[in-house]
Each structure stands twice: as structure tokens, then as C-alpha cells.
Amino acid sequence: MIKQIEAKVVNRLRQVTSAIKQAGANQVSIISSTAERQAAIEFAKAAAMRPRIVGEALREISRDVRVSQALFEVLEVQNLIAGGARITLIPPGREMLADLLSGAARPEPEPKAGKG
Q1: Looking at beta carbons, which pairs linking 26-30 to residues 24 or more positions away fall under 8 Å?
Q2: Distant-in-sequence, close-in-space partners of 80: CB < 8 Å, separation ≥ 6
Q3: Domain residues of the chain, as ranges?
Q4: What is the 3-state secondary structure (H, E, C) of the chain?
Q5: Full-prediction pTM beyond 0.90?
Q6: pLDDT tens digits in sequence order for the chain, 116 residues long
């Protein structure tokens, strides 16, 4: 009879332990889903604010023509670099098209005299 009582107590302890574990898992799940929902709401708010913030920054930048030109030159260079394009820099004051047409863009190197 004592063994039967012990078996019932052990069985009941297992059930209670399982119920406690399940209740804890449920609480964790509720907390996690609430946190995920709140995070999603905050990310959505931030995403909605971004165009306004960027627009205000661009409006401020456009007030100074030199700053705006510099910004867009930098952005253009960044896009060229990101695209893997080759860039050839031309010194100022050079008539590149005329040099290319005349073949004078790169003079041929003179052959070196042999050792003799």
C-alpha cells in the first residue's frame, strides 16, 4: 500500500512539474511575442520617419549650392565604385579629345640603346 501511495505521489509530482514547466513556457512565449510585436511597431515607426528626416536633410543641404554639388559628386563616385566601373581621371586644362584624335595622348617610349 505504501508503494502505491508513493507511486501516486511521484506521478502527481511529475504532473505538477510538467504543468509548471508548461506555464513557464507559455509565459515566455507571451513575453517574447509581445516584445516582437512592440519591436515591429517601433521599426515601422522608424521606417515611416526616415523619408521625412532624409527629405529635411536634403532640403537643408540644397540651401547651399556648393554643399549640394559636393554631396552629389560624392554620391556619384560612390555609385561608380560600387558598380565596379573603371574611372579615368583627366588632368584639368587638357584637351583630351584632341589628344586622343591626334594620337598624342601617350607618346611612344623611345627604345633604349643596347649595351655594347
Answers
A1: none
A2: 87
A3: 2-102
A4: CHHHHHHHHHHHHHHHHHHHHHHHHHHHHHHHHHHHHHHHHHHHHHHHHHHHHHHHHHHHHHCCHHHHHHHHHHHHHHHHHHCCCCCCCCCCCCCHHHHHHHCCCCCCCCCCCCCC
A5: no
A6: 888 899 999 999 999 999 999 999 999 999 999 999 999 999 999 999 999 999 999 899 889 999 999 999 999 989 988 988 777 777 777 676 667 767 655 555 666 665 54
